[in-house]
Design a protein that fits this description.
Number of helices: 7
Number of strands: 2
Shape: flat
Strand order of the largest sheet: 1-2
Strand content: 5-15%
Largest sheet: 2 strands, antiparallel
């Protein structure tokens, strides 16, 4: 397409290349659409009603749950300040009961004992290693997962208590990488 427009323009006396790429048109449309969305945006306010509750020795926060008939916006949030304040004033200091409680079982893995960025920082500070050098050493240790894990744990512990770590660290490295 660009070639056709350039040839047509050159017949009319234009010297140069006219770029009429499909990518540019798509990109311009994205910019125009975002600009229109930005111009159409109106400020909206919503309100949360929260409280602090005590049950025996336990103290916990809770939030008001929207019920049918509450003035809400398109996202289901309280949209009327007077209504939200009325709810807060009505329940303030009043006794409350727990209607339902739910717990969810979530699996969360523990953090890694030592990440590459921290290892690179410490190796640079302690030994003057460049980041790529540290990465290469770490990758060579990854061939034996237990070696890398043991090295990371030992290095993390020793750095935490400010002990020199070079002797312990190098025990885990292949011979060709040792200094």
């Amino acid at each position: 397409m660009s070639r056709a427009y350039t040839l047509a323009a050159s017949k009319a006396g234009y010297q140069g290349v006219l770029s009429v790429g499909r990518g540019a048109n798509a990109y311009c449309w994205v910019v125009v659409r975002r600009d229109r969305e930005f111009e159409a945006h109106t400020k909206s306010y919503y309100y949360n009603v929260t409280g602090q509750f005590a049950f025996g020795d336990l103290s916990f926060p809770a939030r008001y749950q929207i019920v049918e008939g509450d003035p809400v916006d398109e996202k289901g949030r309280l949209a009327n300040q007077v209504h939200a304040q009325g709810i807060a004033d009505t329940v303030k200091g009043a006794a409350a009961s727990i209607i339902s409680a739910a717990t969810k079982k979530k699996e969360q893995h523990p953090p890694l004992p030592y990440n590459l960025l921290k290892l690179q920082t410490d190796a640079s500070r302690k030994f003057g290693f460049m980041p790529n050098q540290t990465k290469d050493i770490t990758q060579s240790c990854e061939k034996n997962t237990s070696s890398l894990l043991i090295t990371a744990v030992i290095v993390n512990i020793l750095v935490t208590i400010n002990m020199p770590i070079h002797r312990v660290y190098w025990l885990q490295l292949p011979k060709q990488l040792q200094r």
